[in-house]
Design a protein that fits this description.
Layout lengths: L5 E5 L3 E3 L5 E5 L6 E9 L5 E9 L6 E2 L7 E2 L8 H4 L2 E2 L15 E9 L6 E10 L6 E7 L2 E7 L8 E8 L3 H8 L3 E8 L9 E2 H12 L9 E6 L1 H12 L3 E7 L10 E3 L2 E4 L44 E7 L7 H14 L5 E6 L16 E3 L6 E3 L4 H22 L13
Parallel strand pairs: 2-10, 13-14, 13-16, 15-18, 16-17, 17-20, 20-21
Antiparallel strand pairs: 1-3, 3-6, 4-5, 4-9, 5-7, 5-8, 9-10, 11-12, 12-14, 18-19, 22-23
Length: 418
């Protein structure tokens, strides 16, 4: 019986990380109930897995684009549910994938429900982070370190600075696949506790470096950011010329934790937090959403980023189930400030049910992990199904936003293929 069963990944078992695949099983008995599984191991050796129960149709077929999961790590019709619902076998771990040269490998399999769950068929999905022809070049210039990703072809291409809190190449590489020259730079290149002050100058150097690239379109630079990177992105747009478009994802309206300097003078004081407001949970991970001090309090006015000075266009993105901090409130405060100054250079997107860690789509969601500043496991928020849907929608929105505001017309040749 098992030799008749076939598991297929369409259109191919090899795809880019941010592309969906259609999972189909044929050769089952009519109305047979089976368990579908997915399994992957990240770069730190942590195993992630998911499973779902399906009933075959009268022809002995299961199609995840059509058929509902009856039970498991998700229920209902979720074509990519086996990917985003994968959970770690160890508590408080996020899927770690930063070596973009190597694909994200997922083993899909189908098993009998009866007996010992004998495997009937399996297939390996290679999810590539770097497309054909995309170049990856480490960069150390002046006071910044980063990695530059450049699409194939002569261009010119729009330029994007990816400000990640800690170095991660995944988002930058995936954007380069879509026709952007992307320089990824980490906000923190050392443990945050060791950094007593931050200088906007080094991020300006990164912007200037991007502008000088031969394949970059003669236009301002875009910036994409999340969390702590959000207030750095706002500060760049407010103090540094040449920033044309900013994507701010679950950031803050104020300069957080560390004083910010520019041209050898302090331009923003730090908004601090109080760990006495940490909320413990039975899982061992805490909720830190309410730890940040109020940025609108009189004593914290010097921490607010003067975003009204910026000439850039903004896309503000807030997850309403963000448990790291109150991103929705911070976004509303930024918007109110812009409106008060007569500005209309922004758009907003809110995602009910999504958590803090919005990433490119189709990776395992991270419910909890050790916080880089708090140094203990925290809950990041997000109902898995809603969070996964938000990542799919946002990824497309980001690309459309940058194309619209960086004077670039997307063409077929600018998108990488396998």
């Amino acid at each position: 019986m098992a030799s008749q069963v076939r598991l297929r990944l369409l259109p191919s078992a090899k795809c880019l990380f941010d592309e969906p695949v259609q999972v189909k099983v044929t050769g089952l008995r009519s109305r047979q109930v089976v368990t579908m599984k997915a399994r992957s191991t990240d770069e730190k050796g942590v195993v992630f897995s998911s499973s779902a129960t399906y009933r075959a149709d009268g022809s002995g077929e299961v199609d995840l684009e059509r058929d509902p999961s009856l039970s498991g790590t998700y229920i209902g019709v979720e074509p990519m549910g086996l990917l985003w619902s994968m959970k770690a076998n160890i508590q408080h771990k996020c899927f770690f994938k930063n070596k973009v040269i190597n694909p994200h490998v997922v083993k899909f399999s189908v098993h009998e429900v009866e007996g010992d769950g004998r495997m009937l068929a399996e297939e390996t999905n290679e999810r590539l982070l770097i497309g054909d022809g995309v170049s990856r070049v480490p960069v150390k210039k002046g006071n910044f370190y980063g990695v530059l990703f450049t699409p194939p072809g002569e261009g010119p291409f729009p330029a994007v600075l990816d400000l990640c809190t800690f170095m991660s190449e995944k988002r930058a590489c995936l954007l380069a696949n879509r026709g952007f020259v992307v320089l990824v730079v980490a906000v923190y290149n050392d443990k945050p506790v060791n950094i007593k002050e931050m200088h906007l100058d080094c991020f300006k150097e990164a912007v200037d470096f991007l502008k000088q690239q031969p394949k970059v379109v003669n236009k301002g630079v875009g910036v994409i950011s999340r969390s702590k990177g959000g207030d750095i992105a706002l500060s760049l747009a407010s103090f540094v010329p040449g920033i044309e478009a900013v994507v701010w994802i679950n950031g803050c309206c104020a300069n957080v934790v560390t004083p910010l300097f520019y041209n050898k003078r302090k331009i923003l004081s730090p908004l601090l937090f109080d760990l006495k407001r940490v909320i413990p949970t039975e899982s061992g991970a805490s909720i830190v959403k309410y730890c940040m001090n109020d940025p609108l309090a009189e004593e914290n006015r010097a921490t607010l980023v003067p975003v009204e000075k910026a000439k850039a266009h903004f896309l503000f993105v807030a997850s309403e189930d963000d448990l790291n901090w109150d991103s929705k409130a911070y976004m509303d405060q930024i918007v109110e400030r812009l409106k008060r100054h007569g500005k209309e250079n922004f758009e907003t997107v809110c995602y009910p049910g999504a958590g803090h860690l919005l990433d490119p789509p189709y990776g395992p969601q991270c419910p909890s992990r050790v916080h880089g500043i708090v140094h203990k496991p925290v809950l990041w928020g997000g109902e898995p199904r809603s969070h996964a849907a938000a990542e799919v929608h946002l990824w497309k929105k980001i690309q459309e936003f940058f194309i619209s505001h960086l004077s670039y017309e997307a063409t077929e040749s600018s998108t990488c293929k396998l």
